[in-house]
Predict the 3D structure of the following.
Amino acid sequence: MTIYALSSGPGLAGISVIRVSGNNTKEIISKLTVKKLPKPRVATKRKFVKIKDNEVIDEGILIWFPAPNSYTGEDMAEFHVHGSRAVVNAIHALISEIDGCRLAEPGEFTKIAFQNGKLNLLKAESVSDLISSETEIQRQQAIKIMSGKSSDKFNSLRQRLLKILANVEAKIDFPEDDLPDDILQDIHFQTENIKDEIKKILNDQKVGERIREGFKIAIVGPTNAGKSSLMNYLSKRDIAIVSEIAGTTRDVIEAHLNIDGYPVVVSDTAGIRVANNEIEKKGIKLALDKADSADLNIIVLEPKSVDFTRYLDGLLSKNAIILVNKSDLGADIIDQEIKKHNPIYISIKEEKNLDKLINLIKENLKNKFISSEDIFITRQRHRNNLEKCVESLENFIKKKSKDDFDKAAEDLRLATRYLGMIVGKIDVEEILGSIFSDFCIGK
């Protein structure tokens, strides 16, 4: 099967790139150019014509990548044409008429590259992350993963486990031969070391995931305190509806922001109060859930928020900044319980003290995004497999009797399997669909 897709961005553009990969690539080039194949990996000027009557569709650049020296490992070509929808649609229609050709699914080119051994699973994921990166720190992390440092680390740990497993299986295969005591001691010593190394990787404060997904900030507080106004201020556009009517926001509204190069996801939530109806009750539950999962809570109050102190204990158990909006109404009427938490007195309407809030947010970001050369985990999938690997290693270490070697070997096999699933060293077909479906079409 040969696949094709627009690999550049959709819509009007100066140049569009249509990518083709598969056994029919040579036939497609021949039919669309009515000429022999160009030199491999050399940009060649060609006219692209209709198959039936040779009517010229466009004139552009053709690059031919014969297998196995291509991105996918298959015969591959790129048609660089003018970025007109009419041109792109016409070339797509012509390719679709050729037997064995179909439009590519999201991420299918990279999936084929992985299946053909052109890159491992971690590098494939980093390609998607690089395409999706919106901030400099996200780009840097994707490039680091693409460089192979994470892959090398997990492959090294896996190879060390395989050596330990070989010694354990040798004892199972030749039970009459006793392994020297120093080898048995070394098996448990090495296993403990590997387990500790993985635990150290897991103890990373989820920096990699925060960089990839964004630092989560929840704006919470009572109704009519100015949460939506703050959301609009931070976003520099009108995302949320602002009204003097209490309870305007019912659902969670999110915005992806770039603050000093750090990726941030800000959530505006429903006002917290005694609910008047079932819909508002659900909105308040969503607000509290969002606050619970956030990396930072911005609690927005106003001078009359005397009945909100009972919610503070739960929200302050995590990292939080307390704001008292509408401070022009007078700080003397603010509840004493709120004053104990040293809030920042602001006025969103007059943009008073909002610079203090921005600086506090930046400090939080710098503390959470501590620069590290040793970021290995960027997805929950990686973390889950590492946690299961540690669990299997702990089960192995508990089995110290030589009579338990059969069961202990299975624990080691599971540990190596979980490490292998991170880089794709084993059959991982069941997870490939979910991984590559996050890619854009044409990649």
Notes: The first strand starts at residue 2 and ends at 6. Residues 211-368 form a domain with the Rossmann fold fold (CATH 3.40.50.300). The radius of gyration is 29 Å. Residues 7 and 442 are 4 Å apart (CA to CA).
